[in-house]
Design goal:
Elements lengths: L23 H18 L5 E6 L2 H13 L3 E6 L2 H10 L4 E7 L23 E4 L1 E2 L4 E2 L11 E4 L16 E5 L10 E6 L16 H6 L9 H17 L1 H21 L5 E2 L10 E5 L3 H13 L14 E4 L6 H17 L3
Parallel strand pairs: 2-3, 2-4, 4-7, 7-8
Antiparallel strand pairs: 1-9, 5-6, 8-9, 10-11, 11-12
Helix pairs in contact: 1-5, 2-3, 5-6, 6-8
The chain binds 4'-deoxy-4'-aminopyridoxal-5'-phosphate (PMP).
Length: 339
């Protein structure tokens, strides 16, 4: 789809990646992408959409630089949440409202386990923990303290109520297209209190004032996001996406639960619909699984180096058939390597 129009976008004689970000042609694309994102996620008018640089990691810094006046609560449910908390601690007081490290991040805390501060500027959480394969299935009650959510690996995978969040951010490279773009959705009243020394590219007030064009934005990544949004709209929106993802996850977890050979890594009530983590009976068999799977065209199944094992990332772009092929392979592998 992208390759066909690469050299002559809508008869302009130019590829999108050649266009100036200030050209009429590109601005039309840009406005449409923003409008489509608003439509797909049902983003209320009192929220801004920013396209920023530096991936989700850039936001680990930008968030405290813009929002942390005195103190922020961080809920640490995985490695990225931990990194976000460590970065924020450079700029202000960080209180860990929960830390799952001791339990090797295998679950999401219950509401009553969260030690939230009454006077926090915001509560940060990671909606889906990409490495460990856990996902929040509820939005915590924070008594009016804005929730800041890293949705890098779950955005656009289901319907969410944006109005329950102060800020949502995501690196685009999983469910939103390709790398080189961070998307930030922020409630307008939270903008305008950046620390004086905040780098210009990370200031939310300047980003707002310049409509994400203080400098050249990632023009092509934004364009690709637009394509992804049209695809979702054509399929029937996030409701349909959610149903598809639920079925994919159910198919895979059912296979894991019905086969003693594999051990799922996340606790049952905390399972991610996007990243399914498990092990075979030994590290050697994990490696063999990944190798044999690759020979059948089932790729990228190696678990993250922090936890090892096997991880199937079943983002929006993965069809049900892909999951079914994996399940067929898992059954066969278990039979062949049964102890
Ligand atoms: N947060 C989460 C949940 C992630 O999965 C990732 C990347 N895998 C990051 C943050 C870091 O994203 P980036 O590479 O865009 O900085």
């Amino acid at each position: 789809m992208l390759s066909e129009e690469r050299y002559n976008y809508e008869g302009s004689g130019m590829a999108v990646m050649e266009m100036s970000h200030r050209s009429k042609g590109y601005l039309k694309i840009f406005e449409e992408v923003k409008a489509d994102l608003r439509k797909v996620m049902n983003i209320p008018e009192n929220y801004e959409i920013f396209f920023m640089h530096g991936g989700a990691t850039g936001q680990f810094s930008a968030i405290p630089l813009n929002l942390l006046k005195k103190k922020a609560d961080y809920i640490v449910t995985g490695n990225f949440a931990k990194k976000a908390a460590e970065e924020a601690a450079k700029y202000g007081e960080v209180h860990l409202a929960y830390n799952g490290k001791e339990e090797n991040y295998k679950r999401i805390p219950k509401q009553e386990e969260l030690k939230l501060s009454k006077d926090a500027d915001y509560v940060h959480l990671c909606a889906n923990n990409t490495i460990f394969g856990t996902e929040w299935d509820y939005i915590p009650e924070t008594n009016g303290v804005p929730i800041v959510a890293d949705m890098s690996s779950s955005i656009l995978s289901k319907e969410i109520d944006v109005s329950r969040y102060g800020l949502i951010y995501a690196g685009a490279q999983k469910n939103m297209g390709i790398s080189g773009l961070a998307v930030v959705i922020i409630r307008k009243d939270l903008i305008g209190e950046a620390k004086e020394y905040t780098p210009v590219l990370y200031r939310y007030d300047l980003t707002q004032k310049n409509d994400s064009m203080y400098n050249t934005p990632s023009t092509y990544s934004i364009y690709v996001l637009g394509k992804v949004l049209k695809w979702i709209l054509n399929l029937g929106g996030l409701k349909e996406m959610e149903q598809r993802n639920a079925l994919k996850a159910k198919t895979l977890y059912e296979c894991l639960d019905n086969c003693d050979f594999y051990t799922p890594l996340a606790k049952k009530d905390s399972r991610s619909r996007m990243n399914v983590t498990f092990t075979a009976p030994s590290p050697e068999l994990d490696a063999e699984f990944v190798k044999e799977a690759a020979e059948r065209g089932l790729l990228n199944l190696k678990g993250h180096r922090l936890i090892g094992g096997i991880r199937a990332s079943i983002y929006n772009a993965m069809p049900q058939e892909g999951v079914e092929e994996l399940v067929a392979f898992m059954k066969q592998f278990a039979k062949e390597h049964a102890l």
